[in-house]
Amino acid sequence: MGIFVVGDVHGCLNTFLNLLDHWDPKSETLIQLGDLVDRGSLSPSVIHLAFELQMNFRKEAHFLRGNHEQLMIDYMKGEDRLGVWLSNGGNKTLRQFEESHIDPDNYSTWLTDLPLIWENDSVQVTHAGFSGIGNPYDQKNTNGLLWNRKPLINTGKLQVIGHTPNWDGVPKYSKESNSWNIDTGAYGGVCLTGIRLEDDGTFIETVSIPTEASDLL
Fold this sequence. Notes:
This protein is of the alpha/beta class and 217 residues long. It has helices spanning 13-20, 43-56, 67-76, 90-100, 108-112, and strands spanning 2-6, 28-32, 61-63, 117-119, 123-126, 158-161, 172-174, 179-181, 191-197, 203-210.
């Protein structure tokens, strides 16, 4: 099976659907590297789509936790006393849930169970990558897999990450760390990018879809 990794969606449902047209579930494993929610116009529908995809393609579709999912989880658990999620897109997302008449608690267990990493013998997919500083799996580590913005270390595997937008719309490869950053600013009106790889990490192509205007209302 090949691998098709999708970057930060951030509530851009229609753009995400257009990119999914390029995924072949019969020959590729789909991995979305987190930040499904916040900032775009259709976060509840994006979560519902991801949930349904994982239910229908249990072996072929995988969704990881990003820092925005973590912020949402903390808020739903009553652990966000400073309102960090609300000030980082959560207010808009909550309003979308209310307008859609969808209870976000319906997805709380699914969100909480999202893993921090998908990997095989050659590839590691995480939201923000391995910095080599502190415990990468500590959800509060600002240099960990949810929050890191420092240069990545070379782990011996190809890393695919998002989290830090490439506002020029071009996914970036680092030879030094052997990593791809495929966040191309979908929520900012640029594009949503997927990267197609062989199972051994061999690069095939990137696919970038310009953000649909309807995702930015």
